[in-house]
């Protein structure tokens, strides 16, 4: 029987700088995650960190990482050819089967674009899977923009609203993502749609409220509740909120439940 908490040594195939603070690490692995799941990345004698999968394919997986602490700082010292330790995949991902044949609205803030990247590319590569995709993606400033090539690609096929919080950039909007929720023609979707929101907790809170204000039923909203996880298998209690274990019951939650997940 496989040990679900045993890390496996994996070779780093490529390191790509995405922005001022984010890098994508392509790692060789045969693990097959679901869209929206996460893995535990570790370095012996340093520690481990839960990181969402941003892309995956046969024999590889991408992790887009922002340097925010001891473990991620050490990961940033790694180069192609070095080793990372992985365990997982863990958690519940996006309910892509539920999205099939519907209009899908995806709203992201900053690095929150990473947990939906693989799903968006699946929609792009399989244009008949959903009726339409509307993508609202915001970043603090131009230096924080990630996945530039993908953003350009998605713009050609999806309805897109790309925005910077306060900066000006040609071809981009200025303002918070909440300001663009009302531009989505929800009434034209005849109720046949789902909404995905990923980003910092305040962004998800106010974007969810804005969506509800625009008439979106709460049960049609999905979020990725990225709260600090430790064991990833529901044993340590580090991510527990009331009776919910984020690592097991999430990280993807329906808004009807997620709105109550407050520490």
Quick summary:
By secondary structure, the protein is an alpha/beta fold.
What is the CATH superfamily classification of the largest domain? Nucleotide-binding domain of ferredoxin-NADP reductase (FNR) module
Which regions are unreliable across 5 or more consecutive residues at pLDDT < 50? none
What percentage of amino acids are in beta strands? 25-35%
For the record, the CATH class of the largest domain is: Alpha Beta
Query: How many E-type strands?
Result: 16
Strand order of the largest sheet: 4-3-7-1-2-6-5
Q: Mean pLDDT, as a whole number?
A: 91
CATH architecture of the largest domain: 3-Layer(aba) Sandwich
Main β-sheet: number of strands, strand sense, barrel status? 7 strands, antiparallel
How many domains comprise the coordinates? 2
What is the helix tally?
7
Explained architecture:
- InterPro entries: Cyt_c3_hydrogenase_gsu, Dihydroorotate_DH_Fe-S-bd, FAD-bd_FR_type, FNR_nucleotide-bd, OxRdtase_FAD/NAD-bd, PyrK_electron_transfer, Riboflavin_synthase-like_b-brl, Sulphite_reductase_B.
- Keywords: 2Fe-2S, Iron, Iron-sulfur, Metal-binding.
- This protein is an alpha/beta fold and 263 residues long.
- The strands form three sheets. The protein has a seven-stranded antiparallel beta sheet with strand order 4-3-7-1-2-6-5. A seven-stranded mixed beta sheet has the order 11-10-9-8-12-13-16, sandwiched between helices. A two-stranded antiparallel sheet has the order 14-15.
- The radius of gyration is 18 Å and the shape is globular.
- α5 links the parallel β12 and β13 (221-224).
- The protein has helices at residues 70-75, 96-99, 114-125, 148-157, 201-213, 246-249, 255-258, and strands at residues 8-17, 22-28, 38-43, 47-52, 55-57, 60-66, 83-90, 103-109, 132-139, 159-164, 173-174, 193-198, 221-224, 240-241, 244-245, 252-254.
- The protein folds into two domains: 8-90, Elongation Factor Tu (Ef-tu), domain 3, CATH 2.40.30; 96-258, Rossmann fold, CATH 3.40.50.
- The model has no long low-confidence stretch (mean pLDDT 91).
